[in-house]
Amino acid sequence: MNYKNMMYLLPLIIFITSNIFCQNYEYYDLTTRAIYRLEKRNTHESVGTAFAIRYNNKRYLITARHVAENNFDLRARVKVINTITQLDEFLELRIPKSSWIFHPNEPNIKIMGTDTTSYNGVDIAITPLPNIIDRKIASYYSCSICEDGKRNVLSLRDPNPPLTVQVIGFPKYVGYELKEQRPIFRSGIVAFTADEPFIRETKSNAYFDKNVFMIDGHVFGGNSGGPVIHTEINGNVTLVGIVIATVEKYNYAIAEPASRIRELLEFANNQNKLITPEWYKVFDW
């Protein structure tokens, strides 16, 4: 295609892109209301991102394992709908460190040749979301067939290059003074899919799970645990993965694919977790 033809196509490309991402506030609101900033309890310090997902008529909060696997409890500010007044409210979700369920594929140490290398395992964690009296969670990503008829958002296939994707989350130190946390969109493409444990740094010999994929795009620290979505031309959103690492120096990120999310949902669905997060009073900031 020559330069002259490209100039004719450019306005059409801009028009299509604008209709997808600039429909109005509704697209941003519906896409991000299920996404929460995770903070250390009793502080404003951000440690990562999480999002709500529904599976088999149960709601869960999902994030990266390394975000949840700390020696301190977490909290999140969650927008809910008061079913009596029909108004939005903010609740504080207190998440004990003991409430998390991890993917059964545990981290371990592998011997490869003469080098001892650490294997990070599947970097995803999940915790049940308890019900709230007279309130309901404003939004969530749906998985499988829900009784309310919502479209299945979790992809049945893992993404392949060069799929365009958007990453949504909370870069550290952005918006921490705000009562309502507003997630930040970043865009990129799926650049690479791994078929075997993928090395992160040659110096540390730390390996990622063999199913991860690489995102070519600017993704910042604090996005770990945030959803990776693909927006179709008709505006439908598909959840294709979850961010587990960023390498800002080289402008790429690593994500676990949809199949790993589905595996953990199935695993968590069969667990009887005695300790669950607790809802706290209407958030007063």
Please tell me about this protein's structure.
- The protein is α+β, with helices and mostly antiparallel strands and 285 residues long.
- It has two domains: 1-32, no CATH class; 33-282, Thrombin, subunit H.
- Helices cover 15% and strands 40% of the residues.
- The chain contains four helices and 20 strands.
- Strands 1, 2, 3, 4, 5, 6, 9, 10, 11 and 20 form a ten-stranded mixed beta sheet that branches.
- The N and C termini lie far apart (56 Å).
- Residues 1-25, 111-116 and 145-149 have low confidence and may be disordered.
Low-confidence stretches: 1-25, 111-116, 145-149
Distance between the termini: 56 Å
Helix content: 10-25%
Count of separate structural domains: 2
The overall average pLDDT, rounded, is 78
Discrete helix count: 4
H-E string: HHEEEHEEEEEEEEEEEEEEEEHE
Strand content is 35-45%
If you compute it from the alpha carbons, what radius of gyration comes out, rounded to the nearest whole angstrom?
19 Å
- CATH architecture annotation of the largest domain: Beta Barrel
Structure summary, number of beta strands: 20
